Amino acid sequence: MKDITLELAKLHILTGADFIRQLKLIVSSGEFHPVEGEKDIFSVGGENGEDYDNLMNAARKAVGHGYQVYILPNPKGIRTADFILVQHGIFKMYDLKTIQGKSSVMNRLKESVGQANHVLLNMATDYNATALARCIKKYFELNPLAMEVMLFKGAKVIVVTRRTVTDKMFFNTFTKKYNK
Fold it and tell me: Which of 105, 114, 140 is closest to 12 using CA atoms?
């Protein structure tokens, strides 16, 4: 576990291709084991953590959308994301935020600043689409390093990028996708 902690810490200073190489190194480190009874979900422990049920719920949805999921440990003293998701050879690191309250999205997005440039919102409650779109747009304005917000709503996945929110039709397009 000590080795993976050091490798995770390096992610805070790497960018671009070096960052992606580091994600690949972490995934192939030999530290991860398949989660019993699950397909394409791997972990290094933490099964007794308070967030584990939320992590597994989101991980199962990600697998349903074609991802391999690597649940990251939560080492003391290092802010880390929750997942490395791999799809078609593309590696991305996501911070999971399970949304259960009616007005929690903005606070939850702010919490992820400094943990990962990709956020996964697992919507466990009904949320007003326009209010949600406003929060996502604001998050991109507040966090210049943010690259993507992915949402799981039921069986649906919606991906919002920095470029997406600059489109003048963003609110209209997002609302249609979210309410569909």
Answer: 114
Instruction: Give the model confidence (pLDDT) of 20-34 as tens digits.
Output: 999 999 999 999 999
Q: Give the start-end residues of each E strand in 82-178.
A: 83-87, 90-99, 118-123, 148-153, 156-161
Structure-token match 């999921």, residue found: 69
CA distance 16 to 18: 5
What residue type is assigned to position 157 of the chain?
V
62/40 Cα distance (integer angstroms): 10
Tokens matching residue 117: 């440039």
Q: Could you tell me if 22 and 14 are in contact, meaning their C-beta atoms sit under 8 angstroms apart?
A: yes
Asked whether the whole model's pTM tops 0.85, one would answer: yes
Residue with tokens 């609110």: 171
Secondary element (H or E) of residue 63: helix 52-64
Question: What confidence tens digit (pLDDT) does each residue in 70-109 have?
Answer: 999 987 777 889 999 999 999 999 999 999 987 789 999 9
Q: Which two tokens stand for residue 124?
A: 């466990």
